[in-house]
TrEMBL record:
<feature type="compositionally biased region" description="Polar residues">
    <location>
        <begin position="210"/>
        <end position="219"/>
    </location>
</feature>
<feature type="region of interest" description="Disordered">
    <location>
        <begin position="210"/>
        <end position="276"/>
    </location>
</feature>
<dbReference type="Pfam" id="PF02023">
    <property type="entry name" value="SCAN"/>
</dbReference>
<feature type="compositionally biased region" description="Low complexity">
    <location>
        <begin position="225"/>
        <end position="247"/>
    </location>
</feature>
<dbReference type="InterPro" id="IPR038269">
    <property type="entry name" value="SCAN_sf"/>
</dbReference>
<feature type="compositionally biased region" description="Basic and acidic residues">
    <location>
        <begin position="265"/>
        <end position="276"/>
    </location>
</feature>
<feature type="compositionally biased region" description="Basic and acidic residues">
    <location>
        <begin position="249"/>
        <end position="258"/>
    </location>
</feature>
<feature type="domain" description="SCAN box">
    <location>
        <begin position="116"/>
        <end position="202"/>
    </location>
</feature>
<protein>
    <recommendedName>
        <fullName>SCAN box domain-containing protein</fullName>
    </recommendedName>
</protein>
<dbReference type="InterPro" id="IPR003309">
    <property type="entry name" value="SCAN_dom"/>
</dbReference>
Amino acid sequence: MQREKEAREHEFRLKQLELGVIKASDPKIGLDTGGFDVSKHVKFVPKFQEDNVEKFFNHFEKLGEQLKWPRDKWSILIQSNFTGKAQEVYSALSIEDSMDYDKVKKAILQAYELVPEAYRQKFRKYRKADTQTYVEFAYQKERHFDRWCASKKVSTFDTLRQLMLVEEFKRCVNDDIKTHLEENKADKLSEVANLADQYALTHKFGKVGQTQNKGQFNRPNKKYGSSSGTTSNSGSQSGSISPTNSGKKQPDSSRQKNDQSSFSLKKDINAHKFGN
């Protein structure tokens, strides 16, 4: 409880600092600004963008370098513009961590789920804009690659080699296996290959079972002919058609009588002609 109370008081005084109610040199804030007046510079801090957190940090860091803000004061300046989830994350940090810019930045980037896959996609999909020089494009491309490597903790040639091989392996498999590999987060080629084989084997068995089930529909059903109004092999039901003569109509008695009468009439006519 005491810690939460101190955190709330600290946040409140930082807000007062932003509004210019108090000065950073106030001993109640617990900050040694070394003569740097935070209240005069806080208005230059860019607006926080939840849909592009990285852009916000990049913009802020450029301003900090250009305006020569002391780096140990960056966390005081940046917190003034946090909104939404970033504000919640900052409030949850300890007082010590909230004064460390790198820790603040790391916590907020994690909160917005800027995961390795997102960095990889940014690196692969990044294209040169018409307004960019090739030097600027190369610089941004390199930054995306470095962030991807840093998020995967790539620090040696072997880890970089595995990163490239695993990515290429995932590019060559179908989407179902790729999704399975992403969910298991394997980082070595041998691991992803084993996971892919296991998934493929299970998937194959599933297809065999489905094929067998589908084949059952082609098998004769003993109960089918016994229901009313359905086809029977014996042909004993009225109006039914024998399966062996499917599609052929059986002649009824009236049709047979008409055929016999017509034949007899023709026979009499022929006999009369020859008799004459």
